[in-house]
Amino acid sequence: RSKRALDRVAILNQPRARVLRDGSAIDVDLSAVVLDDVLVLRAGDQVPADAIVLQVNGLEVDESLLTGESDAVEKGPQDVVLSGSSVVAGNALARTIRVGVESYSTAITLEARRFSLVSSELRSSLARIIKWITWALIPLMLIALNGQMQAVGGWQHAINNGEWVHAAVASIASIISMIPQG
After folding, report:
1. Which carries the bigger pLDDT value, residue 152 or residue 12?
2. Max alpha carbon distance in the chain (Å)?
3. pTM for this one?
4. DSSP state at residue 177
5. Cα-Cα end-to-end distance for the chain
6. CA distance readout (Å), 177 to 132, 172, 173
């Protein structure tokens, strides 16, 4: 579950961003977006950096990947749009306030990757039980192998006639089902 969550958190996937430079809109790589760039946001775009909206024309942003909010959020002048959110309607100009590792989506990604298992009494008890079961499987395996050899006529008979192979396979099959999967 954590792996799937981390995969979903790798939010920024748009390879290019449209910015205003020298009075005209140009497409640049995401890595070329810098602080105080003016982003040109259109329907279908993904916001490449955290920004404050300057001019807006019916801008609606889907922030569900970041906030879990399923409905599009209408944005007005001076509202903040977060990197990783998608523009679903309208268009806008927005000035970047955080880029790269300082952006909201990067902060979420870094926080999620710091995930670590928490020690608890339940987890420790389950680990101890699994260890005991694993150690108990060794004698059980020997008992199952001996039982299979006796069923084919004893150890000597099984080794001489090659029936030991079938007995070994049967005993391994019976033990495999006992191996803890946790």
Report:
1. 152
2. 92
3. 0.53
4. T
5. 15
6. 16, 9, 7
